[in-house]
């Protein structure tokens, strides 16, 4: 049975993770956090801010987990081509794609 969590709480927590150094996030929650971020990012009905923070958090893990670069690039390119994305999403996607291209 899952616990109902308000979107504002999720957004605030993701914002903290996205702005934190990955070394400060406990390894015990790392795998589930990455998995949840991919799920939130892939969900087109999710709030834009949540998807943007999930995208940034995943980008922060690109050096620690090599698979993230390719998976994240594919998801972002697909969403930009398929969905009518907001300006905020497009802006963050552009920055993330630039960071991913440098790896």
Spell the H/E element sequence. HHHHH
CA(first)-CA(last) distance: 40 Å
Q: Please, what is the oligomeric state?
A: single chain
Count of DSSP strands? 0
Kindly estimate the percentage of residues that lie in beta strands according to DSSP.
under 5%
Q: What Rg, in angstroms, do the CA atoms define?
A: 13 Å
Largest sheet: none
Helicity level, as a percent range? over 70%
Q: Assign an overall shape.
A: globular
Unreliable residue stretches: none
- Total domains: 1
Please outline what is shown here.
By secondary structure, this protein is mainly α. It has helices at residues 7-19, 27-42, 48-60, 67-82, 87-101. The chain has five helices and no strands.
Task: Give an overview of the whole structure.
With 103 residues, this protein is an all-alpha fold. It has one domain (7-101). The protein is built from five helices and no strands. The chain has helices at residues 7-19, 27-42, 48-60, 67-82, 87-101. Helix 3 (48-60) packs parallel to helix 5. The longest helix is centred in the middle third of the chain and has 16 residues, at 27-42. It is globular, with a radius of gyration of 13 Å. The chain starts with 6 loop residues before the first helix and ends with a helix. The mean pLDDT is 92.
Task: Name some characteristics of this structure.
single chain; 103 residues; mainly alpha
Give the arrangement of secondary structure elements:
Elements: H1 7-19, H2 27-42, H3 48-60, H4 67-82, H5 87-101
Helix pairs in contact: 1-3, 2-3, 3-5, 4-5
């Amino acid at each position: 049975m899952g616990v109902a969590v308000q979107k504002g709480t999720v957004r605030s927590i993701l914002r903290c993770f996205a702005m934190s150094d990955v070394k400060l996030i406990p390894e015990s929650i790392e795998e589930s956090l990455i998995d949840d971020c991919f799920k939130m990012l892939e969900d087109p009905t999710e709030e834009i801010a949540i998807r943007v923070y999930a995208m940034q958090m995943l980008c922060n893990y690109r050096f620690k987990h090599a698979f993230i670069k390719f998976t994240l690039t594919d998801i972002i390119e697909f969403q930009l081509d398929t969905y009518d994305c907001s300006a905020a999403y497009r802006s963050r996607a552009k920055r993330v794609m630039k960071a991913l291209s440098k790896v």
